[in-house]
Write a structure and sequence with these properties.
Blueprint: H1 6-21, E1 24-29, H2 37-48, E2 54-59, H3 64-73, E3 78-82, H4 83-91, E4 105-121, E5 136-138, H5 145-156, E6 165-167, H6 171-180, E7 185-190, H7 195-198, E8 205-207, H8 212-221, E9 225-230, E10 241-253, H9 258-268, H10 271-280, H11 289-292, H12 302-310
Parallel strand pairs: 1-2, 1-3, 5-6, 5-7
Antiparallel strand pairs: 3-10, 4-7, 4-8, 4-10, 9-10
């Protein structure tokens, strides 16, 4: 044996081991503190983190639109987005019409349905979307999926932001103003039940239905919208309310390391992670392998695709 080669072999081994075991970071852009994205993101970050290998963290953000832009620019490794927003960004249509396509976006997983809520104070007699005309209505911040959904709903009912007294504020700020009587209604798109809505029950609120021809027009315009019902007593004391929902999806970009995405996806659907998700949040029960590949409007990331093919849910 050539003893002079031993140090070189040892160095090569150490370097190779370092490459295999190098710790990687995976930021997940979520949403505001009053929504569903952040608590679900915290659960997912915990589920996919692997000591010494993957450190995943959930970061509060403005939501869907801001997340896909940050992912495409490299400011985030991954994040949550409504399915329609991700598709529009990738294909350059919808709200991205005439703007540069974010065609590097890739899907990790479809997660759960996000429900469109239209919340009103019970004491001011608002019974339908049309009654919002002239009212003080919070539509959420620029960059949020809620603002996009709100604009879709208003358009379907023949209204625009100019017909309201709109406010572009976060759900928790909107909730404070609703309780104080300085706001009449708010839009919120997120998993039901949502803390942002539950916290308002003592104020006396109702949910407005989104149904009939306006809902049909919305669905015709966006294949990512599905009929939904907020079941009675999802929010105690509030009757069953027909509405629409859109898929919440975990998105990344094509340049993110395929092995990292593969390992994160595999961890998300492990038995331990599935149990933690189901116990940790109502919407965690929807984050299943069967739902993961539904409603895809953008290509899957190669790392996620590899896992889904191994599991037989994609060919």
């Amino acid at each position: 044996m050539n003893l002079k080669r031993i140090p070189l072999l040892l160095l090569a081994t150490v370097l190779a081991a370092g490459q295999v075991c190098a710790q990687q970071y995976l930021r997940i852009g979520t949403g505001g503190t009053a929504g569903t994205y952040l608590p679900v993101g915290v659960l997912i970050a915990s589920a996919v983190s692997q000591p010494g290998k993957i450190v995943a963290t959930a970061q509060s953000s403005n939501g869907s639109l801001g997340n896909v832009i940050s992912i495409a620019s490299g400011a985030l490794e991954s994040g949550f987005s409504q399915a329609d927003v991700a598709s529009w960004a990738y294909h350059g249509n919808g709200i991205f019409e005439g703007k540069p396509r974010l065609n590097g976006l890739r899907l990790i997983a479809n997660l759960y349905p996000e429900t469109i809520h239209v919340v009103v104070r019970r004491d001011i007699g608002i019974k339908a979307i049309a009654d919002l005309r002239g009212k003080r209505v919070a539509l959420d911040e620029a960059g949020s999926g809620t603002l996009i959904s709100a604009r879709q709903v208003l358009a379907a009912y023949g209204l625009s932001e100019a017909d309201l007294q709109p406010e572009y504020i976060k759900p928790n700020q909107a909730g404070d103003k609703l309780r104080a009587g300085t706001l009449d209604a708010l839009f919120f798109t997120g998993g039901a039940p949502a803390k942002a809505i539950t916290d308002l029950l003592a104020t006396g609120i109702d949910l407005l239905p989104i149904d009939g021809p306006p809902a049909q027009r919305m669905r015709a315009a966006s294949p990512f919208l599905a009929t939904d019902t907020i079941a009675a007593d999802t929010y105690p004391g509030i009757v069953a309310t027909p509405t629409l929902a859109v898929g919440a999806q975990w998105v990344t970009r094509d340049t993110l390391d395929a092995e990292l995405v593969y390992q994160a996806t595999k961890s998300l659907y492990s038995a331990a992670a599935q149990q933690a998700l189901a116990q940790g949040h109502v919407k965690g029960r929807y984050i299943t392998l069967a739902n993961a590949v539904q409603g895809a409007g953008i290509p899957f990331h190669p790392g996620a695709l590899r896992f889904y093919k191994e599991m037989g849910v994609l060919k």
